[in-house]
Amino acid sequence: MSESGNGNENIETEIVKNGGEQLAEMYSGGSASFDSTSNMAVTSLEKGDHVWVRVHVAWSSNFAVHCCFSTFSGFLIGYYETDVLPIG
Fold it and tell me: How far apart are CA 85 and CA 82, in angstroms?
C-alpha cells in the first residue's frame, strides 16, 4: 500500500529473488488517497535462496510504503529431497 500524497504519487515494487531476478511487479498510487495492489509468484528455491519485495526506483515517485497494511509472506508448497534414491 502506498502512502497518500498530492494526487500524482505512485510506487512500483517488485518481488525479487537472490541477486535481483524479478519474479513479479506491482504498481499502486496515482491518487490523493492510499492505494494498494497485490501480486504473487511461484518459484523453485534452494537452501540459502532469498526472496524479498523492493521498490523499483526508476518508476516510482513515492518511496513511502505504508507501515501497517503492507505484508509479504511465502509458503512451502512441496519438498524434494535430492539425496534420496527413487524406489524401484
Answer: 8
What 3-state class would DSSP assign to 57?
A: helix
Task: Show pLDDT as tens, one digit a residue, over the chain (88 residues).
Answer: 776 665 556 778 889 999 889 999 988 876 667 778 889 999 988 889 999 988 876 666 666 666 677 788 888 887 766 666 666 5
CB 25 within 8 A of CB 53: no
Q: Which residue has the cell 529431497?
A: 81
Q: Where are the alpha helices (DSSP H) in the chain?
A: none
- 78: its cell numbers: 512441496
Residue with cell 516510482: 60
